[in-house]
């Protein structure tokens, strides 16, 4: 230990002891003490971005992939204010993120000082914990409390630290705490389980609505559907956990969903909601009994009137519920009808993605199917809000190893690329593919840390639209990924052929009206191709 150990040194030691390996951010004078502590440590890496919003989104992408605490940091005033959109997304996606927000000098607070804001108030709505450190003695205790909130509640914690506190000297007797998740089993009471089983046993047409809370409960979900002879409708966030290897899945519901998913809910007499806070009330059935399982009791009944609420994790609740169900002789007519409906719906959607003639703009469905086909079995997909999310929801096939991440609750533009940076840093060996809209790509593309952490293919409906000559086509080519024929362009399209050779991306015969300034190639092997 050095003779000049500071509060910032203790903060960095606590983060490192708790498994944090990266901090995303943009340097600033007000938290030089913290970045200098990172330099002295030499193990926790500073991941530099060019805009603080990208730092927050990258941390959210990192946390979504690992389930572990991710950290972002920003300087006082406008610096940490730029974090707010990405932090809203992380908090609403319930991923553990710690934001370290520097502040103006303590003695100047309240005097309309240069760059003065009140971060602990600004971040209150987008966090599970936000606190101002007023004196050095509050650290590291406030940091530990913040980390525990983020990890255990699944959300954002914000620690606001005036710049001079980072530099305050501390004794060597302060040992860094280790903050890790506490293992738990959360299961409803016997009476609640008995009531739910009685209702399910009496039902003739059960439909399951599966959300993101089904993570880690795939096998239990399939077993429950098999016993109840129930079709499974998944939400957008539930797609990666409920759709794959599930013969009872009948598609998605909601604004981007399938008719089959809507009909399966419309015609049920009992709707069993598993780990979902699906927000669109018009898509719920009007006359069905509703049973809702959620680990957060406050979420039960806030979308639709619930007859039986079960507070517990999906996995633990299904395990306790299955032995109580009477599955003998249950009628499978409802399930068969909904499966037939889904097959017809799926056939119509797949027909839209069939390879068409080599003239005119590429249809976005064709692009999505081609990306799905060439992607690795454990690829990570990140979709911008808008039509990229639509094509991801309808045409990406997940398998329990692939991941799909997006701003699915907060609905922010420009999430895919910075989240992809966090995902790639968390898993350097995996293929990371961002599906970006033209607007989202334009907002943050020049604020990315490095093109080497760029993505497989970026293409939204706007870029691959039908209106010839009025849309754009973009592809960001990751090192080692060769674009399939369906993604190559000719005639009026943007590019004749795009491929990667060694560490150099090459574009042959660009469109004669392409803006040369929109073609960038980094020394680390990725290219960004744009057509106007």
Task: Provide a descriptive summary of the structure in words.
The chain has 3 domains: 160 residues, 3-Layer(aba) Sandwich (Rossmann fold); 158 residues, Rossmann fold (3-Layer(aba) Sandwich), CATH 3.40.50.1220; 177 residues, Rossmann fold, CATH 3.40.50. The protein is built from 18 helices and 20 strands. The C terminus is likely disordered. It is an alpha/beta fold. β8, α11 and β9 form a beta-alpha-beta unit. α1 packs across α2 and α12 runs antiparallel to α14. The strands form 5 sheets. It has a 6-stranded parallel β-sheet, with helices on both faces. Strands 9-8-7-10-11-12 form a 6-stranded parallel β-sheet, sandwiched between helices.
Based on the coordinates given, report the CATH architecture of the largest domain.
3-Layer(aba) Sandwich
Note the overall shape. globular
Largest sheet: 6 strands, parallel
Strand order of the largest sheet: 2-1-3-4-6-5
Count of domains: 3
Oligomer: single chain
Which fold name fills CATH's third level, the topology of the largest domain? Answer: Rossmann fold
- Distance between termini? 57 Å
**Low-confidence parts, pLDDT < 50 over ≥5 residues?**
447-532
How many extended strands? Answer: 20
Average of pLDDT: 84
Give the DSSP E fraction (strand runs of 2 or more residues): 15-25%
C-alpha Rg (nearest Å): 25 Å
Helix content: 25-40%
